[in-house]
TrEMBL record, chain A:
<feature type="domain" description="EMC1 first beta-propeller">
    <location>
        <begin position="20"/>
        <end position="423"/>
    </location>
</feature>
<dbReference type="InterPro" id="IPR058545">
    <property type="entry name" value="Beta-prop_EMC1_1st"/>
</dbReference>
<keyword id="KW-0325">Glycoprotein</keyword>
<dbReference type="GO" id="GO:0034975">
    <property type="term" value="P:protein folding in endoplasmic reticulum"/>
</dbReference>
<dbReference type="Pfam" id="PF25293">
    <property type="entry name" value="Beta-prop_EMC1_N"/>
</dbReference>
<feature type="domain" description="ER membrane protein complex subunit 1 C-terminal">
    <location>
        <begin position="762"/>
        <end position="967"/>
    </location>
</feature>
<feature type="signal peptide">
    <location>
        <begin position="1"/>
        <end position="20"/>
    </location>
</feature>
<dbReference type="Pfam" id="PF07774">
    <property type="entry name" value="EMC1_C"/>
</dbReference>
<comment type="subunit">
    <text>Component of the ER membrane protein complex (EMC).</text>
</comment>
<dbReference type="InterPro" id="IPR011047">
    <property type="entry name" value="Quinoprotein_ADH-like_sf"/>
</dbReference>
<keyword id="KW-0812">Transmembrane</keyword>
<keyword id="KW-0472">Membrane</keyword>
<keyword id="KW-1133">Transmembrane helix</keyword>
<comment type="similarity">
    <text>Belongs to the EMC1 family.</text>
</comment>
<dbReference type="InterPro" id="IPR011678">
    <property type="entry name" value="EMC1_C"/>
</dbReference>
<protein>
    <recommendedName>
        <fullName>ER membrane protein complex subunit 1</fullName>
    </recommendedName>
</protein>
<keyword id="KW-1015">Disulfide bond</keyword>
Amino acid sequence: MAGLCSVFSVCLCLLGFSAAVFEDQVGKFDWRQQFVGKVQFALFDTHSQASKKLLVATEKNIFASLNSRTGDLFWRHVDKTGPDGHINTLMMHGQDAVVVVGNGRLLRSWETTVGGLNWETVLDTGSFQSAAYIGVQDVVRYVAVLKKSAISLHYLSSGHQKWVENLPESDTVQYQTVYSGGNGQVFVLGVVPNSHIVIVEYNIEDGEIMKQKSVAAPWLSSLQSSCVMVGSGVLLCADPTTKSLYTFPLQSADQTTMTPILLESLGVEVAAGFQPVLISTQPHPARPPLSEFFLQLGPDYHILLQLKDGLVSTLRDFNPSYLVAFATTGEKTVAAVMSPKNETVSSLYCTVINLYSADTGRRLLDTTIIYSMDPNGGKPAKLYIHTFLKKDDSVGYRVLVQTEDLVLTFLQQPGRVVWSREEALADVVTMEMVDLPLTGTQAELEGEFGKKADGLLPMVLKRLSSQFILLQAWMSHLWKLFYDARKPRSHVKNEVTFETLSRDEFNLQKMMVMVTASGKLFGIDSKSGTVLWKQYLENIQPNSVFKLMVQRTTAHFPHPPQCTLLVKDKVGLGSLYVFNPIFGKKSHISVPALPRPILQSLLLPLMDQDYSKVLLLIDDQYKVTAFPSTKNVLQQLQEMASSIFFYLVDSSQGRLSGFRLRKDLSTELIWEVVIPTEVQKIVGVKGKRANEHVHSQGRVMGDRSVLYKYLNPNLLAVVTESTDSHQERSFVGIFLIDGVTGRIVHEAVQRKARRPVHFVHSENWVVYVYWNTKSRRNEFSVLELFEGMELYNSTVFSSLDRPRPPQVLQQSYIFPSPISTLEATLTEKGITSRHLLVGLPSGAIVSLPKMFLDPRRPEVASDQSREENLIPYSPEMPIRTEWFINYNQTVSRVRGIYTAPSGLESTCLVVAYGLDIYQTRVYPSKQFDVLKDDYDYVLISSVLLGLFFATMISKRLAEVKLLNRAWR
Amino acid sequence: MVFKCPGGAAVLISAVLCVFGPCLCGGQQPVLSPELPEPLAGGEVGEGGEAALLTADRFQIEGRAAVYGVRPEIWAPSAVVLVDGEEHVGFIRLDGSFTVNDVPSGSYVVQIASPVYKFEPVRVDITSKGKMRARRVNYIRTSEVLQLPYPLQIRCTGLHSYFIERETWGWSDFLMNPMVLMMVLPLVIILLLPKVINTNDPAMRQEMEQSMNMLNPNPDLPDVSELMTKFFAPPKSHSSSSSSGSGSSKSGGGSQRGHRGGPRRR
């Protein structure tokens, strides 16, 4: 009976706390953007003229198809991260694309219209060198994969292996290229560095070695970097030292040396430090490559050359030119060259792309595309050409340009941008949400209160005028609403620009400031997902660490809001970048020079005269730099110094140390906790979020007494992991350390547990997830800290004066899925109940009520626990698809979830970022403070009107009746 | 839910209790992780897993997924096979089959992630020699073996239901509301009855008066319900029963008259 009761109560709770999405809310306040990352290979589908497919393979191990008309994704396949999923090469033939994955481990063939997998073959181990289609008599039948010591041939239709052969002398010869001219042989080219080239010829049918010869090339170190195949089986190599080209026909029977051609004989001036790059093209895999090729002589200098009868001739000289590419449509091959617009002044910001006929080098008429670069962006890095035949048989083309800041721009003549994608957003590192500024009128109204009074009459007049302005704004708003309502819904476009950017009445629309790993900053409107500004920071080293801080919010009109980005490179040397988060403009405030590596940065609640919070930077000599460092700030710091504490974590030595600021801005070590690194290492340290509010100090129990929470704002949660990874001995440790005194408040060890560990620290609780090695499942554990039945000091919390340790409750639960990331919701005042947002590898984000993670959940429900709304304990945590806040809009590889409070207490803004970006709102306790969006205005107004008229009519009738009675 | 799984659940709960007890009274003991019975066959497999990582003995997990009535071209491109999260990833071929390559020996949960269709996860155990076994995922009793066929046969168990129905307002809901029924029905009776019955007709009035008399029987006549309770109540004493017996005969006559009056009223 009790069991039934408890099950029933659980069901009730489930019903009450299902924070699901309604179907009509889809896309109303949420959006998703999908990215692919930095493009490595891009191929246009030239199979048919009407095709819109663009295939890309990226550094994020993604193979995707984009719509070349709109830039949207047709489909996308996300492989595993790391070298095992790395895409080595991408080739396309007809409808199918062949991809070599994981250093030549897998060979996959994809059907490109729907994005389905045709077949998949596991190859033998060995480092991948190159792959090529092998055609016989104009039909492509096989694909050859060259490994370090073997070559294998596979059927294109099924992936089955035709033959595999070991390469001769593979321990001395570096085989790097495989080539087939479409006439029944497969050539494998290898090089012994600075000695000779080895050419092995295989028979397609059985893999037998037909011929094997070596050609002396003492100047050659690598085939891939300095040799290409040109024309009908001619190997062409460039030698930077002698400044000459070498040719060697593969099929020749008698020739044993390479023929040198001096570049000077071609009339080409070669500068010192010449690093030649050869670019050739093979339009059809079953036919030999074209005899025309590009030679890059310098960073901005290419020439188009032709090889004819063993002689090289110059077709055209492109100086200056940034990027070149070949493309073929039908029987025509063209070369596209990106060069500065004005040939004399090489202005980087405006470039021109022109099309040249490949076989003659003549410029094709009316083929200019003007490409103007973003002044806040990077230089163009790669050029891909999509050509097609027009109706009059001339060649039309579109260009895909990838820049250094990972913008993919697709252009058509005469320079119209068809679409562009910000692929830097595939790698968001950190983000903040900043309130939007008030509109001019709102700001004026606000400003009125701040000013000193200047007489009664002017104030009244001012008041009236501002009210009038507000009325005007309201009327125009109403008019706009009315105007938009008449138009069909699809036509109403909410164009977001800086002019229309203003805070809405509930502060639901904010500016998302995103920092990406490539060093590009973005300002994105949270309502629509439009990128409002972007700024590319050059000279950012890879693997830098970013920390974004909001120094001044929008609340201090007329001072503009101010964000500071701290960039730390590998060594720890930092630099500050100060900007306005709304407009993205770099601020002109002088930034302190940081000559020493930065260990820690803290944003103090202290404010300068211009309301910017003080940022303290601690370098490796424990010296403190304040920013801004005005007199006022320094004075405030001196006054406050005795109450400013900070901590440092050295995870390599397992040391946590606490410091105090002295009046002269030097520091003093006050505590140190050493976690022995032989046994365990620190995985993560988390404090509480600065903008978090806790509404209630305690919890009301079933018997009406109050259990007070232990709300220590200085508490740090430190999670450690054992160095011993054996499943019986591994453990995960959690320490709760007071950041001021260094006192270990609580310590827990989870035996037989290991990473991945995710944890959230908020209010009086810590939730952490670990992998249970013994039962092989993920488990949630929650720690809650309580002061007890009475508060020690209810007015103020001091870490230095807390005689009693808190009471700690803990409970663990099974979570039936792996976890990618974990975050807690956050609301304005903390009245709303909390939910945990759990990112799953499947791409879903689950909103899990904190109620399920309550260590006071009883084993058996009693009256008191029912009074308290405690759900009886059950070991397994449910996952219901109704709790997926992103329904079917999966977010791949979620790296982090950012939560921000909105102006409404019930509403929390959520941004999940990873490969994709997803923004939505969640209502952990439902929308209790605002009318729901399904509120039936028609019903309530019709009922009110009906009642009103009913009273009017009945009043009239009653009057008539009374009158009649009086006459009787 | 709690009570369906006696073995594991009971142990878990007791572990929690021993945590729960001291903490309430101010204890600060380190918390033990919930102890569970050693997984029998799975345990051996798991130990092999760590060692196999080094020897690079890698295996393939093979299987086939199917959605009833939907061709794989439609659902397979958007689905992906996840093994222990994103540790190993496999793609589904256009015929519905899939292979996950390079998996070291160990125990894994194989799951097909699709934004539209729901698939049951399967636990796959691989021994260090490469023997495969598939079984149902049971996170509570991890050692329980409910064997499934290998190569895996994963069937779609339905669509994901992401949305909850909005409470729509309809007239039928409104009218069928008990509160409304309680309000509306008496109102109808009060308003309609005087209209139906013509009070000015003398015959009708007479009849009504008569029926009113029926409804309000003489005060000395006991009620029918009273009669019934008395009839079924156990006799207390002889004297009281005899006296009540005489009363009952009298009231019986009254009730008979009442019954006779009933049909006439109709």
